[in-house]
Design goal:
mainly alpha
């Protein structure tokens, strides 16, 4: 799930917000964006949600 040009950051930001709100889990994140989602969760202090 990447946007034109291969940039997965916008999609990752959406998943991060959904995970923090409890609407999605890290397991539900598409494989292609998991590394970026995990990185962003760790930066935000939510590394526990990236398991």
């Amino acid at each position: 799930m990447t946007l034109k040009g291969g940039d997965s950051m916008p999609i990752a930001v959406i998943y991060v917000a959904l995970i923090i709100e409890g609407d999605k889990t890290y397991a539900q994140v598409p494989t292609k964006v998991k590394p970026e989602v995990k990185r962003q969760l760790e930066i935000l202090g939510h590394s526990d949600l990236a398991e």
